[in-house]
Design brief:
The radius of gyration is 35 Å and the shape is elongated. The strands form three sheets. It has a six-stranded mixed β-sheet with strand order 6-9-10-3-11-12, with helices on both faces. A four-stranded antiparallel β-sheet has the order 2-1-4-5, with helices on one face. A two-stranded antiparallel sheet has the order 7-8. Helix 6 runs antiparallel to helix 9 and helix 17 packs parallel to helix 18. The longest helix is centred in the first third of the chain and has 47 residues. It is 65% helix and 10% strand. It has 20 helices and twelve strands. The chain is α/β, with parallel strands linked by helices. Strand 11 and strand 12 form a beta hairpin. It binds adenosine-5'-diphosphate. The site of adenosine-5'-diphosphate (ADP) has 10 residues, from helix 12.
Length: 591
């Protein structure tokens, strides 16, 4: 299939508004030609003035020419404004449709996509890349036609008055074009792409870094997260310097050529007038010197033309990186969960399509059971949990909820059956009420309050004068990791789904918070099927079954007592845990 050009793709998004875009090109070109007419009148003014010199009073037509020049200048502006109005009508439509296309596609992508892709990067695509397409259509394209029409008109003018001077003033144009070609060659396009990537990586990390500050503070990860951010800044520095250095010389020559039209004209003028100056030659020379700024301006516009083409190509490629992401499969024959059981059969998964992080995991959780996942960090516990919620689709094996394959369960039904509270359950910028209500959009305020109460959140609500209407993320409203998690628990509580997936937080700023979160978890879990990622062994003792996840596999499973007699990984972890508890008790006793 032939690859569609960027412009025709943009025009597809414009629909019938494309005709406004085409009209803007024509109007813009006409405006450029009309803008040259005043120069003809200036030439006439110069001619009459030189003819009448020194009795200038005889040049009676000069005011008339002057007014005509003004008239055409104003007319050219009016046509240009009309061109911009047309181009904007179409550009806004395209930007809106592009944003809609990306947003609609996001809705059919796996839930985990945004997390994996990076929310900063997504934001940049939705706002800036579509914005780049808008600017391109609204301003750069009409200007491009303006910049093409001007030299055509100029060529006629320049060659009509004095072809020798005309050619001389065109020489720098040719030179500038050659230099421009080196600046927009393949190698530079590649450099520009690298530069764009580095910029994107940096802004992505910056957003994640700022968003992560509460987590960074709670979990004391500052050095780690700063390292990642710094690496992207270093990478950006490398590309921006290399890109700028490569452009330094050509840019210098280009600017010299563009602004040096005078030099060519004056040198030529001296050459042609060795045998004396005729008034006619003087007239033309003056005219050409007056018109040179138009040449420089046109060339500058042309340079930005190729640059903006590169920018829009890059923007479209970035938009495609989202649009081309594979949507979640939707099964033709839906299956409906029959109970609150969870069954994993030989599940396999990798994030990058290469390294498997889940290597054949099977599990059976009966309705009402509480199951704990334990094991070393990086073993795959969170990945398993996110697969059950269908953040991503398994690449091998299957996951069934209530006997129905999650891939065949309608999305809404799955969301109603499974609730999750993750460590990074980010709250949205909105009131506490709104955040909890996400669990059940039609819940009354009383229901929300009851959920907050059961989730041990009353101290949070009482802390702020606006109560449940306090807007999270507004000035002075800071919630610790544990507090955020309790609000997320209230949300899950309100949702009242029969299956719960919990990720216990790894560390808390204070023991009071920890006790409250534990209590909230316990109430939430009552009567439900619970899969819990346990970071503290104290919480797993009462689980119906403990799965030890190591290196993407189930190393062992059973109740606490069964596992302790097996002398495996869990038994060792348990002994260490017991020792640490005893050590803590002994310490307390010493005080
Ligand atoms: P655990 O929860 O047991 O600490 P995870 O499920 O978070 O383990 O991680 C399992 C493996 O998958 C690790 O090697 C981790 O680096 C990798 N991983 C986790 N999340 C992602 C992701 N979004 N993209 C790529 N790799 C990931």
């Amino acid at each position: 299939m032939k690859k569609q050009s960027n412009l025709s793709r943009l025009m597809d998004y414009a629909g019938n508004y494309r005709y406004f875009t085409y009209a803007s090109w024509v109007l813009s070109a006409v405006s450029a030609l009309v803008a040259l007419v005043p120069f003809v009148y200036i030439w006439m003014i110069l001619r009459d003035a030189l003819n009448a010199a020194p009795n200038y009073a005889q040049a009676v037509n000069i005011p008339h020419y002057g007014w005509m020049a003004v008239l055409f200048a104003v007319l050219s502006y009016l046509i240009y404004i009309a061109a911009l109005m047309c181009s904007h009508l179409s550009a806004f439509r395209v930007a809106t449709n592009l944003r809609l296309a990306v947003s609609e596609h996001l809705a059919v992508l796996p839930l985990g996509f945004a997390e994996k892709f990076g929310s900063g990067k997504l934001r940049k695509i939705i706002h800036e890349s579509t914005g780049a397409a808008e600017t391109y259509l609204a301003h750069q394209l009409p200007d491009q036609y303006n910049a093409i029409a001007t030299p055509v008109g100029l060529l006629v003018l320049l060659l009509a008055f004095d072809w020798r001077l005309g050619l001389l003033s065109l020489a720098p144009v040719v030179l500038a074009f050659l230099i421009m070609a080196t600046m927009t060659g393949k190698r530079m396009v590649e450099k520009m792409r690298q530069y764009g990537n580095a910029l994107e990586a940096m802004s992505n990390e910056a957003v994640e870094y700022v968003r992560g500050i509460p987590v960074v503070k709670t979990f004391g990860q500052s050095v780690f997260s700063f390292k990642k951010f710094k690496a992207t800044i270093d990478e950006y520095e490398k590309w921006v310097i290399s890109y700028t250095k490569d452009l330094r010389l050509p840019m210098m020559f280009y600017t010299a050529a563009v602004n040096g039209v005078f030099a060519f004209l004056i040198a030529g003028g001296l050459l042609f007038t060795r045998s004396g100056v005729t008034p006619e030659f003087l007239l033309n020379l003056l005219f050409y010197i007056i018109i040179t700024p138009v040449i420089s301006l046109t060339l500058t516009r042309m340079m930005y033309m190729s640059e903006s083409k590169m920018v829009v190509a890059d923007a479209l490629a970035r938009i495609d990186s989202v649009l081309e992401a594979a949507p979640m499969q939707v099964q033709a024959v839906p299956q409906h969960p029959q109970d609150a059981s969870v069954a994993l059969r030989d599940v396999r998964f990798s994030y990058d399509g290469k390294t498997e992080v889940i290597k054949g995991v099977s599990m059976d959780i009966k309705p009402g059971q509480t199951v704990a996942l334990v094991g070393p960090s990086g073993g795959g516990k969170s990945t398993l949990a996110s697969l059950i919620c269908r953040f991503f689709d398994v690449q091998g094996g299957s996951i069934a909820i209530g006997g129905a394959d999650v891939r065949s369960t309608p999305k809404e039904e799955l969301m109603d059956t499974v609730a999750f509270v993750f460590q990074n359950s980010r709250l949205l910028k909105g009131s506490i009420l709104d955040n909890v209500r996400l669990g059940k959009p039609d819940a009354t305020e009383d229901e929300v309050l009851a959920a907050l109460k059961t989730a041990q959140c009353m101290d949070i609500i009482e802390k702020f004068p606006d109560g449940i209407h306090t807007v999270i993320g507004s000035k002075g409203v800071y919630l610790s990791g544990g507090e955020q998690q309790r609000i997320a628990i209230a949300r899950a509580m309100l949702k009242n789904a029969p299956i719960l997936i919990l990720d216990e937080a790894t560390a808390f700023a204070d023991p009071d918070n920890e006790a409250k979160v534990q209590a909230a978890f316990a109430r939430l879990a009552k009567g439900k099927t619970v899969l819990m990622i346990a970071h503290r062994l104290s919480t797993v003792a009462n689980a119906d079954c403990i799965y030890v996840v190591q290196d993407g596999q189930i190393a062992e499973f059973g109740t606490k007592d069964e596992l302790c007699t097996q002398n495996g990984l869990f038994a060792r972890m348990w002994q260490e845990y017991q020792a640490s508890v005893q050590w803590k008790v002994a310490k307390e006793g010493e005080r």
